[in-house]
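In the previous chapter we treated chains in isolation. Here, by contrast, the input contains two separate entities that must be folded as one system, with a combined length of 699 residues.
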Amino acid sequence: MVDIQPGPEVVRLHDVSKTFVVRTDNTLKDRVVGFFKARRHRRTHTALDGVSLSIHAGTTVGLLGANGSGKSTLLKMIGGILAPDRGEVLVRGRIAALLELGAGFHPELSGRENVYLNAALLGLSRAETDARFDEIVAFAGIEEFIDNEVKFYSSGMYMRLAFAVAVHTDPDILLVDEVLAVGDEAFQRKCMDKIRSFQQEGRTIIIVSHASGQIAELCDSTYVMKDGSVEFEGDAQAGLSALRDILEGRRAGESAEIETTRRLRVTSVEALDGQGRPTDRFVQGDPMTLRLGVTSSGPVTEWTIGFGIDSPSGQMVLGSSSDRLKLDLDALAEGESRHVDFEIKELHFGVGEYFVNARATDLDGSESDVLWQGALIHVVGSESSLGVVDADISARPA
Amino acid sequence: MTVEDRYARLAALPMRPVGGRRTLSPFGRVREVVEHRELLWLLTRRDLQVRYRGSALGFLWTLIRPLVMLLTYYLILGEVLGAAKGVTNFGIYVFAGLTIYMLFSESVGAASGSIVSNGGLVKKIYLPREIFPLASVGGALFLFGMQMVVLVGAILLFRVWPDPFGLVYLLPSIALVLVYSLALGLILSALNVYLRDIQYLTEILLTLMMWGSPIVYSWQMAADVMQRFHLPAWALEVYTNNPLTLAVLGFHRALWSGGTAADFPHDLALRMGIAGVVGLALLVGAHALFQRMQGNLAQEL
């Protein structure tokens, strides 16, 4: 997320619908036979159903949803690759679509030839490509192989070159479909830096991704898709928790209903550093305090509270709770708010991003309230190891 | 560019509709293709570059095939079956006919498969899709150019100078072939996405069209045969007014020295003119049809 004022509207969808006809007959014989057996071979699938949305310049928008919810179709619609059956798609400015890296690469051509070809496919003129050529090759880091045919490239080199070309076009709107996880860690960081500089330059980015870490980090707003319509619209944190609700099979209405009847609710999750200041950046080995806030809408005599820290892929890395730590909490009066601190003396996590979830349980009514992804923390530090835990490692000949 | 500049530039642009079927007028579509001419050039070059990559003889293959065809037709049809008797400079005659015919067959054949073979791009990136059949025609033009070099070389070598006045037929013949190839290429390339049989059907029809045009025999022979079988006069008219036949006749008129007035139908220029106008109308219609179909190409692939 970058502090830039949103500019004029650049994408507007008005009541857009798209239905696919899935046919299983693709030969003349099937067609002729099928002609008499009326439409046996046809199934329809509604990919988008009356979607309306508006995106402004300078914002980064995430399209979320389960597989098959229509988010990629929506992206293709904005890119002009698919035509809407109903409704209208309006855009302005230059669009570059990173829908699949290297779609235009030809294995028999050299890296150099492919750069020119792919740049032209993404709308760059020859003169513009000439001007950026060295930068593209340097970004991909494959200077010495640029005149080799790309069929001899490793898949990492191939993807790096494709990504380098794509980000060096000069789009006002960049459409990204699950392609930011390219190459090794160093290159991924380079990609993210490039995306951030795109944001600084007031470009609009529309991302389809399943990596919640990326969404949380990059997006100003999100649209959560379900069965072809926009189910939820809001900022990244809210969007991710709406997505989680959908993935867990809950409807938005249901969770709202439960919320009102719950007496005990988690209201906040805050990460504090050793001096008690809020932060989201921790060096390995630092202390971290998680301050969880709860509020009650009725008297609660017995309750517990806990947290769970997840990696971006959803795996729990660390968790604990007041009952595990043998902490007795005083009863809550109606309408009372309270905070509980969990102190972690040394944070030995691997470098990366983590989500903090919090759960409060009302033991009287056996009800739990969970605040998913209440905070996002970044752990920085030594590059000497991989994985979600940090350890003191050394190597020597045995 | 600062953020403010970008916003100001964007705010000044109108919101343009994308993806819809009637979003652009035919002129708008043509302009879009013209704007992508650099890409068209690159795609044409890519198809040619890739074609003989890794083969030792490379582009010589583009000449070997027509030369072998020439040799077989010359020997078998010309000398063994006697077709050469009625035609002076039979070798030049056959090679000229093959050259212009191959421009047509290469264009239409490659164009019909072009959208399917570039499916990866069509599905991933928005481009005016006309570019793919156009690039096929561009590639065919290049091969045509190489054969022209051989043809002109042969004319110089054997000192069989064509009638200088006939040369005015050269460019109209090529233009006629291009207009019809493009029209057919556009329609077939899009249809082939819906029905893959089109590609194979096209190959067969192209072979038939070769024998249906005066390439390895003369127009005079065809006219004689029709007379012998007492076919009505319109049969010859139908045969003659086939645009490919007209183009071949025009090409012969331009580059083949052996022709006399009896070797060509009367009013060849007029016939070619009419075929040209019909071809242009067909091209406009084909483009409209292509536009209707192109909105759904990405999902049909």
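The longest strand of chain A covers residues 9-23. Residues 65 and 225 of chain A are 5 Å apart (CA to CA). Compare these points with the single-chain example from earlier in the chapter.
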